Amino acid sequence: MEEKPSTARLALKWGGLVGLVEILVTTIRYALGYYSGMGGTLFGVLNGIIIVTGLVLALREFRSLNKGYMSVGEAVGLGSLMFTIMGLLDTTFAQFYQAFIDPNLIAKTLQQTRDFMEAQGVPDEALDKFDDQMGELEAQQRKKGASGGAFLLSILWWTFAGTIVTLIVSLFMRRRKDNPFD
Questions:
Q1: Per-residue pLDDT tens digits for 45-86
Q2: Residue 75 and residue 96: Cα distance in Å, rounded?
Q3: Per-domain residue ranges of the chain
Q4: For 96-141, what is each residue's pLDDT tens digit?
Q5: 72-96 and 37-65 helices cross at what angle (nearest 10)?
Q6: DSSP string of 158-175?
Q7: Which of 6, 136, 147, 179 has the fewest other C-beta atoms within 10 Å?
Q8: 3-state secondary structure of 49
């Protein structure tokens, strides 16, 4: 009996690779000063393309190592683990960046968001309410700092979202065996 390809090995390989590319893109985004608004949105779309491309490449590699076959369950298992690894890398980098490289990241993001809202013609009352709510949120964030709960919640979110994305992609990429006893 032949061994099946290791989903853990492939998830580590592709999750690590895509996670590192994500970190690079995020670093470029912040270096260019795009925290929110249209620039942030464009980088978000780029990140989405990178993530889905990495997932497709990981699933294709698994399928080719598995004699051209892959079930939805195998794909979802691989994708969920891959997204967990990407989430671990991304969340660790985000908290490190915010704590040590740019502690004013939240303030910069809020200011860009406010500027964008103002440019869109949002009424002054709504902008004042935004300022009050975001000021409270920023103060709470500075007081609490990076918490373990937020770290875990972020990784869980990556895993959940990754499972959904993988489920959708795997429906197009699966290939069933004609003879289930092979």
A1: 999 999 999 999 999 999 999 999 999 999 999 999 999 999
A2: 31
A3: 7-173
A4: 998 899 988 888 888 888 998 999 999 999 999 988 998 888 777 7
A5: 140
A6: HHHHHHHHHHHHHHHH-B
A7: 179
A8: helix
